[in-house]
Amino acid sequence: MSLDDLPGELILWILIVSELLVFAAGITAMMATQLTDPQGFSAARAMLDGRMAALNTVVLVTSGLLAARAERAAGAGDRRGARVALMGAALGGLAFLSIKAAEYARDLAAGAGMDSHPFFTFYFLLTGFHAAHVIAGVAVLALVAIRARPDAVQAGAMFWHMVDLVWVLILPPIYLLG
């Protein structure tokens, strides 16, 4: 396989890989810091509401499915179908952000702030940086939906799938481990 065999443009792959590396570095730093206080990390993690994380996972994965459907529709020349699927994916992103905002409000009300424990520093940094990517992704999906050209839809879907993947990568160390 050569670089010419990859779907999409090389620069988009460079962006995706670089973003994944940034999140991997954050997760690695979190896991290394957890080694210094496993009980504290476990107690802090127990304060989170895993049901909200599970709901957000379902919302984001469903949104990713819609982005894939948009890509397929655009490739088949169905611009209307691509637009509908892209807007559905973008609405999924907005739903994710609404759930995350409610989760943050709950966490802050329970006394979990960025400076309350190192776990929460990583929690807010990683999930907040991910939320920023969700916001960017929603904007990309909405802009791509305007013309729904196959190459643009593919690029938007690729970015959105990276957002999905990052969530799947940060979910275990934040909500499930320890």
Automatic annotation (TrEMBL):
Recorded superkingdom: Bacteria
GO molecular function: cytochrome-c oxidase activity
GO cellular-component term (any): plasma membrane
InterPro entries per the UniProt record, alphabetical: Cyt_c/ubiquinol_Oxase_su3, Cyt_c_oxidase-like_su3, Cyt_c_oxidase_su3-like_sf, Cyt_c_oxidase_su3_a-hlx
Keywords: Membrane, Transmembrane, Transmembrane helix
Compartment annotation: Cell membrane; Membrane
Membrane topology: Multi-pass membrane protein
Family annotation (Pfam families): COX3
Record keyword Transmembrane present: yes
Main location: membrane
Gene Ontology annotations of biological process type: aerobic electron transport chain
Record-linked Gene3D superfamilies: Cytochrome c oxidase, subunit III, four-helix bundle (1.20.120.80)
Domain called Heme-copper oxidase subunit III family profile: residue spans: 12-178
Family named by the database record: Belongs to the cytochrome c oxidase subunit 3 family.
PANTHER family linked to this entry: CYTOCHROME C OXIDASE SUBUNIT III, NITRIC OXIDE REDUCTASE SUBUNIT E
Protein name: Cytochrome c oxidase subunit 3 family protein
Native source organism of the sequence: Paracoccus lichenicola
